[in-house]
């Protein structure tokens, strides 16, 4: 569907993107994830056509579109700030692209109303000014405005980053539903790990203008290829040499003691007997915990380091501060770099 | 998707205009602008300067010498600078306090106060100064009143520096009222509450939090005030007396006498250089400071109560005293337009002298309409023209950020460097003969030349105001429109223009109103058969007429005020209604 | 109004500085009766001059009348005039018309120093312009003009300065002369823009000042004041208002007809009667008012070398503007 | 410390707050939680003194301060958008309040530098413009500006709501640390449940101008007093009548079948044998799941309803879509209204 071939983008002397290679498949929900300033927006803008790469090619359906102007690529775009036209009402915003294409009035009307219904905008809301609608409704207008053009690809640049937590979760779900309803190929830009994990079919993790890893959420999370990805994708524990030695001693697994070692929070069990595999067991002291409702996060002192672990919460704090517990971990879950 | 698609590129969209056409239009616009600037801004003015310093083809500084040895020229020049500087202070004091009274503090009746303060938007120049003189001058209303109390006082107390400063201070607050009010409304109200929370008093908050944030707007209006002060004409002429004459009337006199035009040009260059220095300084200060609010969520301003009872009473007194200063001249002009010459001369009002004759004679005299029609049409066309030119220029300056756009911007500011009379002379000396770059036409003696002049003098001010509006547009809107397949042209007209329209309209109204009674430019360039209003009114008061036309000037003043009020209502009044409805 | 002019009437644009006080309207009406539909463009002498010069290549005016000989000389020099000798040229007093036939005289005007006769009588009033500054009693009692672009003002200056002609002096004027002008301005009161001289004369603010003779009668009536006219021994400057046709006019033939009509003793006589002017046409002089006749007979013309004045006036004006006006 | 006694606030005819009673103890971290427009900010502003209650009294240390003007109450306030003075630099922003109080220059300097150090602002940053600092640093300036006045109480109105997820978590922790370091009584306004749960000593849940419940995070979460609180404080499952009947049948617990019944996600176990208490067991079909990294959220069909449950993630999806599982729940965990 979309293929980036060795894309490089420079702003003056500054190398914003280099060596970007990726292929997005039809119907896929593909996410660009990365910290601020890593080049996600730049990549997206290269695909949409606002930026001409200094090197490399952009292919759409195997045709080179590197030099096709923005207006002629049929790629929908939803901006971070929505970029709704403030002087037009909701209806006119959605109809804008169709009008530009000189579609007959009645056809426009039909399409606008159809898409409005699909994104749950009422007849009444269509006639309002965009500024009179809430953040969530504005997002739906922005999406409707892009979708009504029947683009083959829909690009979204951090569409949720301006919203508060509750609304973000709600809209995230709406977005996913819409994407599934329309089956449209979607490129999604975010720096929110949770968003990337729950929404995406595949994720490309960006860092400083290069792609560090491309893969499914599970691959990215559990088999992070680089230390950066491992750190960036979610909360993590760093294990020191001493503990690694202990783990090596207890299991027949041979971890490299000189490498940086990491393990995810949920892979550490407390006082747990897990079946099957051979586990390493370490003594730990509960130093503190944080209440999250859904789960409790425990801070456990093991030797000289603090390891975090989560436990599902059953109404009572299972472990008290000061309590000595035994934690178990599977050496296979340790990622080393 | 489907297999037939898989080998084709993304579905091509129909695009409104073909790409080539757009490009041609774009370059056509560039070419037109370049042509306009070179033909009407650069060549005529260079021409003036050239003829000033190259007498018979050789460079001469005779004009400088003459001026330097003229006590009168030097003192007038000095006065102009004194006036410009002192106005920059006094107008800011009054202007800022006006805005604070109407938009920041909780003052009873602020809506009516605001209307009163806005009277300067509907009349200016000669009419305004005459109005003030009519109140404070020798036989003025206030003077008569004061003389009754202090019989020994000098009846001609209202002359000289203080009188000029007084009149101009109150005459020049329009820009504050419009642009500073906007800035106050954009203030981040939470910063005020934060300061309060830390124990700051009302006035400390004002000084340390509010005013610093308004500085960019204050800088901008200060430039305008300074330029106005340097170019002051009517006020010094009428109330300056012998002790306080400024340079512009002198430039005006010199430029009317062909043999002395070099002096006029030279004096203008002094003023121009001062303006340049000022602009450079202001730009520097503007860049140095940081005034961007860091808040993402702004709360709109709530009017501040003045807690100290005594101060509150004082503030109300001050507000209403200002109101009277603004409104009384207007009211009296209106009242006296219904009286006779004698009442006006003696400054007395009585029922017996009330008459409708003035208006009747205006209505029945067909030649009296003509100047109105001429001026309205000229002002309208010129205001539209100047908007078209500056908006297209701003679009380029905004989009193309390079050396050329800088040159474009600065060349459009050129008319600020010369007083309007000199611009008129530049046009005359350049276009009184066929010029190839305008198709071999002669412009002098045609209707076009005055229109051009009106457009030229309004460009710098308009540019500054509209540029600000352009730079506040969210860039992503343009991207979004493009992404939906719209051409640049379509994007511009459908998306960008509507956003800047409010600013465009207010600048349009201000331009229209000020051109309506222009005299300085018109007198040089008007087509003799189409006399504009400013010239017409001035001729009414001319010393060579035997008939006493003072009543008629009052009548004309009232009608000008009515037209200006209508313009303002069309721009602002309707706007207010719309937002209220919405 | 011009209702009487039928559609076939011939159109003309006329520039003039001499159409104030109802003269313009009167002329329009009379011209319409004679079959001319005229548009009058009013302006001060300086304005008219500037206009004609700048419109040289694209003239709008067909006829100009009112400016004085000095100014017409300049027009002629600038090649702005179309030569035409009307039949009434011979009726004009000797030496007033242009010898080359570019312009011809219509009205003579004495430029006088006048005073409010309620406040001064012949005894107490100044006897000559020079008294204004030599006699301390008149300090700040007379009005002067700050702008030297007006025709009358320039003539007054010419009247003063030509008394001090000195080939070795600055701009042809002796030191003494410049001192006189300096004193003249120093002791006078500059008229403020928008103020009316006669109003100030009546109120006593400045009861003396310059006036052109044909304007006196109408103003006396308007302000109900009697003006005293100073009659200096050296005489008073007379200026002659001229008429000429603009070169390049699109209506030269009509213009000629108009000039022919306007200068006749009949029209000039009526004009003189109506507006108290002193016609240059000797035949028309009979119809002039008593006062005009009186002035004509009793106020002798000051001997002024107009060529010399015309050559230097711009420079003088500039010098005065720069150095002497307060 | 602070006591609100029967506070009522009206804006014109609109009753924004009614019947607000609460007491905040010294050193406590007290949170106002509630949806948008419920009156949190209004309550806070009443305490700070921007709003005069139409009825009721505000006490500070048992002194009635209802009519004390803002400037005279010694209550620090950090605004939602920080409200930093854009024309002053960082140092001047922090020093502002001290200067207002006419403190000697050298004393101001001392205090500003001391507080700056405590909130981790470097000497260099002190001289910068506020706009040049990042969101997190700006927050610290805002807090420092409030703390330097040594207020008895620090109020924070949604100070994190403008930030993105990663920064929010980081700053939340910093905030908690600062509060503990200074031991200052803190009133915190938020609509983010997670924030409220992890930060607070006690929470007041607001709804439509009244307080629905005051309690510790655990009380609020596990013993929600009203349906609103129960729904608002976190993700929850609604159980239908039919399932309640089954549960009643399996246990000797007698739940009211006619009431609305809710259970939290983490209180539902899948194929789990929990010791001790008597559990109800229900057959369920896995219909879908969402990957969160830390845990997986399963959607389970039980009869006619979908119940959500979370499971700690151990690298493989424990249950497949379509799989029939047995869920167990403790009837005591069911909240009824
Ligand atoms: N027009 C430009 N000129 C110069 N540098 C630019 C330009 N646009 C982006 N950059 C730089 O390129 C880098 C990548 O920017 P980009 O906008 O793609 O980041 P991002 O990943 O989208 O970050 P964010 O999450 O903050 O939006 C940044 O360092 C940015 O400063
Ligand atoms: N000055 C005011 N005039 C009128 N109504 C007001 C005013 N201030 C607040 N309200 C109304 O009072 C109610 C409570 O507002 P408040 O700001 O306390 O809500 P909040 O809980 O802080 O909400 P949010 O989370 O959106 O900040 C809202 O319905 C609001 O519209
Ligand atoms: Mg970005
Ligand atoms: Mg709030």
Automatic annotation (TrEMBL), chains A, D:
Keyword Metal-binding: no
Keyword Transport: yes
Keywords of this entry: ATP-binding, Nucleotide-binding, Transport
Coiled-coil residues: none
PANTHER family with a match to the protein in the record: SPERMIDINE/PUTRESCINE IMPORT ATP-BINDING PROTEIN POTA (PTHR42781), SPERMIDINE_PUTRESCINE IMPORT ATP-BINDING PROTEIN POTA (PTHR42781:SF4)
Domain ABC transporter: 2-233
SMART domains on file: AAA (SM00382)
Protein name (Swiss-Prot/TrEMBL): ABC transporter ATP-binding protein
Any matching Pfam family: ABC_tran
A GO molecular-function annotation: ATP hydrolysis activity
Any one cellular-component term (Gene Ontology): ATP-binding cassette (ABC) transporter complex
